[in-house]
Design a protein that fits this description.
Blueprint: E1 8-10, E2 13-15, E3 19-21, H1 37-45, E4 51-57, H2 75-90, E5 95-99, H3 108-111, E6 116-117, E7 126-127, E8 134-135, E9 140-141, H4 147-163, E10 168-172, H5 178-183, H6 198-201, H7 203-216, E11 221-225, H8 239-251, E12 257-261, H9 266-275, E13 280-283, H10 302-310, E14 315-318, H11 320-323, H12 328-334
Parallel strand pairs: 3-4, 3-14, 4-5, 5-10, 6-9, 10-11, 11-12, 12-13, 13-14
Antiparallel strand pairs: 1-2, 7-8
């Protein structure tokens, strides 16, 4: 069976192991969207991962979701990421930028503009704002002629990301953000070429990826997906057929990888593995097993990682396990216990719960 600590080739990169640090929105940027010194320290501490995927980064103003998140909307913001990527590289690591267009997951209090989406359908829920949680606004439905501009925003941000020293980018097509909204059957009520049929609903995702590949190359481009996850009030019909069609279209582009959250049943996941010819990354921290936890799934561990490697995954991403364990690769390799992170420090704040977790020490 594939070993978690074997090297693997991903696009233009040779990874020393198959442990990936999953994207997490720690929200430690400045109020005006710049990356910070503490972020450089945080990612550099975790540079022994085969690959780091950054927090979700907004590609443009209207796509901004979280207040206090660093962006790639402007050259100034891109320059602020250079100390982060330099710190990771100096420590021997590799880092992709996750490009996250929020679509309807946004608020005028964050951006000063009305959010956009496939259709004028609001989330049944609340949105993070500088003034606390607020009811989700009704987004403005994008006109057909405006959709390519939003697809192109990923490519523009990707170009800035490469200029800032990132090794590549991951388009955030998971968890109910803009790409996921176009894939959905309740947020996307369109009757033009971007809606209706499966071919229509996958079109935006394909065009966004194609634009990014044209801008920076296929070997530097990946995508994250969460089949049937249901997050941010997104419903998807015909999940196996929808994602089979999407991966069939993306497969011809020779991407660095596809990154799937294990949000569908194993039968569906294995069918998607067979559909995909390239590097297949899985985050086993499934949202199908919520239990009573207010923070969602059980974190990925060595057992679940080995399980998915045995099922054909090439890479396994770890999210919350990386928060309190900067030396996660070594802990997994040696079978050392994993520290527990403090949920109160997950989002926003200062150094506490970000860069103050120590490496393992024997009792």
């Amino acid at each position: 069976m594939t070993n978690l600590f074997e090297p693997h080739r991903v696009g233009d990169l040779s990874l020393p192991n198959r442990v990936v640090m999953a994207p997490m929105s720690r929200v430690r940027g400045t109020a005006d969207g710049l990356a910070t010194e503490r972020m450089a320290t945080y990612f550099a501490q975790r540079a022994d991962a085969g690959l780091i995927i950054s927090d979700g980064i907004q590609p443009n103003l209207v796509g901004t979701s979280n207040p206090g998140a660093a962006g790639l909307r402007t050259e100034e913001e891109a320059v602020s990421w250079k100390p982060v990527t330099d710190a990771v590289h100096v420590n021997g690591g590799r880092i992709f930028a996750q490009l996250m267009h929020g679509g309807r997951v946004g608020h005028e209090l964050v951006t000063g503009v009305q959010p956009v989406g496939p259709s004028a359908v609001a989330i049944n829920g609340s949105i993070f704002t500088p003034d606390g949680m607020k009811p989700a606004p009704v987004p403005r439905a994008l006109a057909t002629g405006e959709v390519p501009e939003q697809a192109g925003s990923y490519a523009e941000a990707a170009t800035r990301a490469i200029g800032a020293g990132f090794d590549g980018v991951e388009l955030h097509g998971a968890n109910g953000y803009l790409i996921g909204q176009f894939l959905s059957s309740n947020a996307n009520l369109r009757t033009d070429r971007y809606g209706g049929s499966i071919a229509g609903r996958i079109r935006f995702a394909v065009e966004a990826v194609e634009a990014t590949v044209d801008a920076i190359g296929a070997g530097r481009t990946g995508i994250r997906l969460s089949p049937g996850a249901g997050l941010w009030d997104v419903t998807e019909e015909d999940v196996p057929q929808l994602y089979d069609a999407l991966l069939a279209e993306l497969n011809r582009l020779d991407l660095a990888y596809v990154h799937l959250e294990a949000t569908a049943d194993e039968t569906t996941m294995l069918a998607l593995r067979r559909r995909w010819d390239g590097a297949f990354m899985v985050n086993p921290s499934t949202w199908l097993v919520r239990g009573e936890s207010p923070y969602g799934p059980v974190p990925t561990n060595r057992e679940s990682a080995d399980h998915w490697l045995g099922l054909g995954a090439d890479l396994v991403s770890f999210g919350r396990a990386y928060i309190a364990n900067p030396d996660l690769v070594e802990r997994l390799r040696l079978g050392q216990p994993l520290a527990e992170a403090d949920p109160a420090t997950f989002f926003g704040g200062d150094d506490k719960g970000l860069i103050d977790y120590p490496p393992y020490r024997k009792p």
